[in-house]
Amino acid sequence: MIKQPTLTNELVELDKKHFIHPTSSIKEQQANGPAIIFKEGKGVYLTDVNGQTYIEGMASLWNVNIGYGRKELAQAAQEQMEKLAFSSCFATFSNEPAIRLAEKIAQITPGDLNAVFFTSGGSESNDTAYKLVRHYWKLKGLPNKSKIISRQKAYHGVAVGATSATGIEGFQNMTSSLAPDFLHVDPFSTEAVRAIIEQEGADQIAAFIAEPIQGAGGVNIPSNEYFQEIRQICDEHNILLIADEVITGFGRTGKMFACEHWNVVPDVMLIAKGVTSGYIPLGGVVIREKLHKEFIELSEGTLLHGFTYSGHPTSCAVGLRNIQIIEEENLVENSRKMGEELHKQLKSLQSELPVIGEVRSLGLIGALEIVKNQKTNERFPTKVSALVVSEARKRGLILRTVTFNEADTIVFAPPLIINKQEIEKVFEILRASIIEVTKNL
Ligand code: PMP
């Protein structure tokens, strides 16, 4: 009898042959096939095509804030698709979900961040922001203000501009050339920002961009003073402040937006991911009323920047429903409360296991460092975090690592709906995985 290929085997072969994966090792895919083929999600749990379940420690890519399987979002998409799935917003055409979502974002973002340019994701939001701030200075008669100061270890996406702003070498080295006029400074030092402004001249600088908490760079949390000082420096030198809240927005850190922790209102805020909890692609660039007014006053003719999907009615309808759920279910508060639980668990693991170095978290975003020596921070010769994450996966837990340069880091960003028992489960599996992997090192 001929053995029938199983569905899994068939999918693995087709994946290898036809699917080029984002941010993945092509060699590894060809050797082992896709790591997991997911089939379903419910709450904080995922199930793969073989029926194995996993608890989600990363909300996929830091974005499935309200958890999986929410019928309300499916319903919002269905209703909108049946009414008007898509229509363009070019040439001032408009649609109700885009208008309503823009209003909602204006309400929930801090200060006078009141007007939104919609994109399809974080990278587009970044490239849009760089063009808008340069356009702004051009309209103001200061076209030389074009340089963008970014930070080492920053991650801003993979469009050419966003890659150029990114401060992680691997991403930057992938191609032979990048966009000009991006500068990178030490991510924790305001002195470094002052120094580069001095060196380059404020009249050459359009904007400073930062993630309030660096995500892909290893969950790096600034000091309490950092962003207030940055705000002050930007004001002193007539430089616009862009906050990339693509990961940190929509409740991730225990506030609706992370810059609220330090009472800082950026001139431009970038959003994506959590705006729809990843159910459908959507992003945006939110600008302060003052800037919006200046654009209205100074602009002439057509703003020659727009994505086909800017203001996509179905995406916007899903975004609106998603934000309602975050509000109705107090998920920002849950993120804050469960964040304390996450922090406790990190601390307790650190005091128990000698291979855990620094731990850090704010709300439901966190990280732990794997070290050979807790006192000296000496690292193991191999990236132990990668082994731990792979062991955890076998045991039914999804986590991610950050391993560029020195880093040997495990990062956390569970869905905001997670409860205490589920956090305990994450740490139970993680603890067992670390013990298993490090017992022979
Ligand atoms: N900015 C930040 C801070 C991000 O973390 C990401 C994605 N991880 C992006 C931008 C890029 O977003 P996207 O992948 O949706 O283009």
TrEMBL record:
Q: Which Pfam families match?
A: Aminotran_3 (PF00202)
- InterPro entries, from UniProt? Aminotrans_3, Aminotrans_3_PPA_site, PyrdxlP-dep_Trfase, PyrdxlP-dep_Trfase_major, PyrdxlP-dep_Trfase_small
Q: Per its record, what are the GO molecular function terms?
A: pyridoxal phosphate binding; transaminase activity
Enzyme class name: transferase
Q: What keywords would UniProt list here?
A: Aminotransferase, Pyridoxal phosphate, Transferase
EC numbers listed for it are: 2.6.1.-
For this chain, the family text in UniProt reads: Belongs to the class-III pyridoxal-phosphate-dependent aminotransferase family.
PANTHER family per record = AMINOTRANSFERASE (PTHR43094), AMINOTRANSFERASE CLASS-III (PTHR43094:SF1)
Q: What is this protein called?
A: Putrescine aminotransferase
Query: Origin organism of this chain?
Result: Oikeobacillus pervagus
